[in-house]
Each structure stands twice: as structure tokens, then as C-alpha cells.
Amino acid sequence: MKQRLTIIKIGGALMESEETIVNLANVLGEIPGHKVVVHGGGRKASDLSEKLGIEIEMIEGRRITNKETLDVATMVYAGLYNKQLVSQFQKNNVRSLGMSGADLNIITSRKRPVRNVDYGFVGDIIKIDTSAMSELFNLNIVPVFCAITHDNNGQLLNTNADTIATMIAVKMADQYTVDLMYCMDKKGVLEDPDDDDSVISEIDYKRYKTLKMNGKIKLGLIPKMDNAFYALVNNVADVWICNIDGLVDYPAIKGTRICQ
Amino acid sequence: MKQRLTIIKIGGALMESEETIVNLANVLGEIPGHKVVVHGGGRKASDLSEKLGIEIEMIEGRRITNKETLDVATMVYAGLYNKQLVSQFQKNNVRSLGMSGADLNIITSRKRPVRNVDYGFVGDIIKIDTSAMSELFNLNIVPVFCAITHDNNGQLLNTNADTIATMIAVKMADQYTVDLMYCMDKKGVLEDPDDDDSVISEIDYKRYKTLKMNGKIKLGLIPKMDNAFYALVNNVADVWICNIDGLVDYPAIKGTRICQ
Question: Strand A238-242 relative to strand A256-258: parallel, antiparallel, unpaired?
């Protein structure tokens, strides 16, 4: 029988709350099997860029990662957030190891090719070293990934945290029974965006298409949902969109279950 | 027979030169046995503090680490420098893993007790997890430490990089034959501070005391030399003060050998 692996992605906004981090540490203690945490960036990087007078370049509503923005992202994600998270986890007896994709060369990406837009130092994942990941699991280590990868040629790259979580889940699914939880501030996908309690308990692909067509899925959720379905069709066992509180009664999970 | 372990500490100023980092990566490839790298901070943290308008508090010539300064140090040391170094090492086939003391709870320190001066968030090392270190060595991993540790109670702490290198060397000396190299920009300890080629090839404790008495040892070198002798009396096999170029012909080393 395959061993279990649970991948928890936490959004950047959650990084601001110590209570949430402690809850997450407790949740990690409850969930059996191996665990991976992936964390987003949050406002801190934008705040720091602003303080440093770094202009945020946007093309077609998408942020461009120039050299200065990459340095700020590396400092905030791989430095401040990653180490604060790891230190809190240790306090709560989670044997965690903060990592970027460069560490152990565990996530290789390539700079996104320039077609119409040059997104700058943004990396699309091309390889996950699944053996290195298993070596860490065998030492009962919980890897904690920030949203920085590299090209294995000395260049760090900014990479979307949802995508990192998804790709790790997909690549590990051959060897492990993988559960993937995208945790955000809302309790799940909402029927009514203005009612935090209108969580849709289950969404399959047909319902997703309908919700999207009716404009019920908020724009920011679409890439997350696409990632979720991508994971499911690539053998990830169970996918949830929820918040940390939805995991505290594990194995009973509250939130939106995504199914094929 | 004990396995060899070589600990290389590189000063912050060296972090600014890509050539130096490539040389170091090549050196790491040449040295047999297990390896640890410890890197300092350099000017970047001070530059960033200045840009952010964070005042540098000094008491009796020593820098105070307040909350803002600690965050900047964590960002620059654990984020930017650590990940840039690791990415360059991977490019040169060194299987490196960037770490702070919080990762795997591998270096625990305690906030320096307030006597006459409150140094702020500065940590004095109280424990190194030597088993965790060996677990990494057994996977042929080269841990790359930045100058951030933690108190195992959720608080990150700023810790001198020379001291981290020294304490790792001392604690690992029971199990490994440890060589410790403090690499800086100068070629070694200089007879004449104005002549970069006046490297003293060997200094024992008696000579050190004489040099110190005659004002021949520059102020900044004294804690490094004290660390060096502390390592030697605590069973570290071989201790050098040199630069990276002094290691490129390893096992022939150029620089200042410290002996008892």
C-alpha cells in the first residue's frame, strides 16, 4: 500500500497571523503520514518594494518580476516568511525544513519564454526531484517551500505557490497517496461571494464550468481551481479548497471538496 | 577511522563576488569527505536598513539588533544571500541545502542575557543537533548556514557567523576529523596590515599573544582568532585563516595555519 502524503498550501495573507500558523502546526501534528507545506508571499513583498521605491511593472494586469522585484521576493519569501514559519513549527514539534527550489536542486524551472509578454524572472516548473523529496520524508522531515525556484544554472526564479503545491502533488502521486489542500482566508468556494458561510461542499468539473459561466467563481479563484482539476486528472487522490480552521478536526475536513 | 568534515566560513564581503562563489563551489568539489559552509552577512543588510530608514543602534561600538534589524538580517542572510549561494553551488554540482538554525531545529541559541547592555535579538548558541547534521551528511548534502538561529520557542535570533562555524566544528569533532577554514578577503593574518603579501604562515597561541600585545593583530581579527584557538583546544584537527584562493590547490592550503 502507498504511504500517505498531504500537501498544504497556505496563502500569503495567512502568513500574517501567528494564530493561524500555530493552528497549522497543530494540524500538521494530527495528520498522519508525510507532509509538505507550501507558502505564498502576501503583502509584505509589495510593501517592501514600495518602501524601497521599486516600481511595480504590470503588463495586461500581470505583474512583471524584474531583478529588484525578484530580490525582494527572495528576501521576503525565502528569508523572512519561510524562517518565521519554520521557527513556529519547531516550537510546535513539527520537524520542518525551509526550502526554495534551489535547495537540493529539488524544483527546477525555466524562465518563462517571451511570447507577447516578458514576465521577467518568473519560472515555470520543469522538474521536481521526487527522490530527494522521499529522502527527506524518510527522515520524518516536513519540507516547507517558499515560492522561489531556480533554473539549475544559477538563476533564482519567482514561481506561483499554488503551482508549486500542485506540481509536487502530481509528481509525488506515483509513489504516494496524495491529498492536496489549498488553504486561503475564506472557508472554501462560496456560492455567494458576500456570504462567508455559503461554502459549496463539493464541486465537480461540470459544476465548475457552470459556476464559471455564470460568473460565480471569482477571477482569482480560476487558476486555483484549474490547478485543482489538473491535480485530480493526474492521480492526486483528494483535493480541497478550505481554510486552516477547516482542517483542525482532521480527518473531518470542512471546505470545498474538488472532484472530477 | 573518523570521517573527514571540512567547515568553510566565508565572510560577508565575499558574497558580493560571483567569481569567488564559483571558486568556492569548485573547491567544495575537490575536498573529500563531508562539508559545511557558513556565510556572513556583508554590507547588503546595512544598505537595506539604510534604504528603509532603519536607524542602526550602537552601544559601546556594538550593533544592537532590534526587531527591524533582525527582519532585515533574516531577509538578506536567510533569503537573498543563502539562496543565491545555493543556486550557484547547484550549478557547480554541489548538493547544497540552505539552512538557518531554525531548520530541523539544528542550532538552538538563547537571546543574549541583558547585563550592562541589551544587544536585542542576538543569540548565543546553546545546542547543535549533531545527529541531524550527520543525517544530512549521510545523504551527501552540504548544509549552507546563514547567520540566523532561533530559540526553539518561535524567536529567530542573529548569530555571528564565525561563532556558528566554530561551534559546529567543536560539536562535530567527537564524531569527525574536523578542519575549519575561516575565509576572508585577505590572504591570511598579515605581519604588516598594509602589505597583503605579508601573510604569517603559522601562529601558535604564544605568538598570538605577542602579536596582540604589539598591536599587530587588527581589532576585527581578535574574535576570529579567539574562535580559532577555542576550536583547537576543543579537538578540531586543523584551523586556517585564509581566502578562497588559498584553497584552490587543496590539499595544499595557502594562508595562516593556527596551531596550539
Answer: antiparallel
| Sequence-ordered alpha helix ranges (H) in B42-110 | 43-51, 67-73, 82-91
Average pLDDT, chain A: 94
pLDDT tens per residue across span A145-173: 999 999 999 999 999 999 999 999 999 99
Name the β-bridge partners of B59.
B62
Count the Cβ atoms, other than its own, within 10 Å of residue A233: 10
Cell of A243: 481554510
Handedness of CA B11, B12, B15, B19 (dihedral sign): negative
Is B84 in Cβ contact with A79 (below 8 Å)?
no
What topology does CATH give the domain A3-54+71-112+123-258?
Carbamate kinase (3.40.1160)
Query: What is the C-alpha separation between B59 and B82, in angstroms, rounded?
Result: 29
Helix (H, G, I), strand (E, B) or coil at B112: coil
Which of A77, A98, A150 lies at the smallest CB-CB distance from B87?
A150
Task: Decide if B135 and A139 are in contact by the 8 Å CB cutoff.
Answer: yes
Predicted structure pTM score = 0.97
B96-109 pLDDT, tens per residue? 999 999 999 999 99
Residues from chain A contacting residue B75 (CB–CB below 8 Å): 75-76, 79-80
For B3-258, give the CATH class.
alpha beta
Selecting from A51, A80, A88 the residue whose C-beta is nearest the C-beta of B79 gives A80
